[in-house]
Amino acid sequence: MENLQILLRQHVGKPCAPIVKVGDKVKKGTLIAEPTGLGANIFSSAYGVVEEITDEMIVIKPDEEQKDEFVPIEEGTPLEMVRAAGVVGMGGAGFPTAVKLDAHFEDGGYILVNASECEPGLKHNIQQIEEEPEKVIRGVKLCMEISGADKAIIAIKKKNRKAVEILDECLKDEPNITRHLLPDIYPMGEERAVVRECLGIELEPSQLPSAAKSVVINSETCSRVAEAVDERKPSFLKHLTVRGKLNGGHDAHVFMDVPVGTSVGALIERAGGIDGEYGEIVMGGAFTGKSTTLDAPITKTTGAILVSMPFMDLHGASMGILVCACGGNYERMQELCKKYNAKEVSHCYCKQAQEMPNGSRKCERPGNCPGQVSNNLQFKKDKCEYIIIGNCSDCSNTVMASGPKMGLKVIHQTDHIMRAVDHPLYRTLRVSKQVDQDLNVVDNVENN
């Protein structure tokens, strides 16, 4: 068995501090690092021996024989147990769940469950709902109890018909938990988009869901809450999707309960190995993930490992970069420009990509985009042959309304991945959002 590299930073906040030393024997669920501020406990995901400790990680050499048993957390209140178990947001952000659930709703509030499987090509959240709906719903109830919320809404894309039908059957006797159907566009899983779609409340980029008396929780996170409270189980496992240019085929390979610290390469081998030449390996989704290496370890927040098609060689063509808050940041877009062998001559930000105090950017209205004519005009003025965009579905649609008419050749940051997972490229929307929303209304009427 390969060594497990367990990173000390798997969440929002500062890295955790190790509480073990080299040579210590550990079990599944042994606490090995504690937060030094905002953060979450980190546990061993295997029986073994601590082989190395660095500023970034704890390396564990697993025993040849692995048991199913784990070291349980101490009993306490549900909130204390979620905190002790080190549960974090497993949709990508990694915010400590105990902090989020400590909401103290006193006059009504909402748990909004993000089951949108927002990033294209991923399947693990939906598969869990299909296979373990009771555990997810149990986690939802616990989140309601802990936060004081009196209602919950499970937000899921309409296209996931089987999962929707399973949820509807399970929720027949749950009057305080409903589900809301989302259109199949990106980024319906962004937390302010979930609030808007479920509650009809528009939040400012600087506002948290708490401003709408709500807490947004990923569906896998709900199941980990249930494990923490009902099974006293620490959080050291992760569901994820491996997909792309693989010998095992282009369909999604879903792996459930993978030990944190497992390498990217090991999971790719489980999916059949890489099929010939490829462009890059991305950890996370096609929009928000980052390029990675075969020896990199997964964390509590890893949602996917994607192997892309090779990059086209643009032979030094002039390229403009359009940065959208819903996709890669400027540095990521520059990286892709270089991998296409293009020369950056201009860059712009989507006019809704509002800069935040920490230097990051958030979209003013995620999923609802204004026109991009002014940016396209700037790219044309700067003599760009190509533009690379990282925009959401609607924003890509607005780019395509004018860019090609100006002679600009458009590449989306996800193209090399979408081709590898047999997914339509992000260009012009094929079905209007309004049609999808109308279908949503009809479906809700039929099921109520």
TrEMBL record:
Q: Does the keyword Iron apply?
A: yes
Enumerate the PANTHER family for this protein.
ION-TRANSLOCATING OXIDOREDUCTASE COMPLEX SUBUNIT C
Matching entries from SUPFAM superfamilies are given as:
Nqo1 FMN-binding domain-like (SSF142019)
Q: Which Gene3D superfamilies match?
A: NADH-ubiquinone oxidoreductase 51kDa subunit (3.40.50.11540)
Species this chain originates from: Mogibacterium diversum
Show where the RnfC Barrel sandwich hybrid domain sits: 3-58
Query: Which is one Gene Ontology cellular component term of this protein?
Result: membrane
Give the organism's phylogenetic lineage: Bacteria, Bacillati, Bacillota, Clostridia, Peptostreptococcales
Q: Where is the NADH-ubiquinone oxidoreductase 51kDa subunit FMN-binding domain?
A: 82-226
Superkingdom, natural source: Bacteria
Do the record's keywords include Metal-binding? Answer: yes
Q: What is this protein called?
A: Proline reductase-associated electron transfer protein PrdC
Keywords in alphabetical order = 4Fe-4S, Electron transport, Iron, Iron-sulfur, Metal-binding, Repeat, Transport
Q: InterPro entries annotated for this entry?
A: Ion_transpt_RnfC/RsxC, Nuo51_FMN-bd, Nuo51_FMN-bd_sf, PR_assoc_PrdC, RnfC_N
**Single annotated GO MF:** 4 iron, 4 sulfur cluster binding
Gene name tied to this protein? prdC
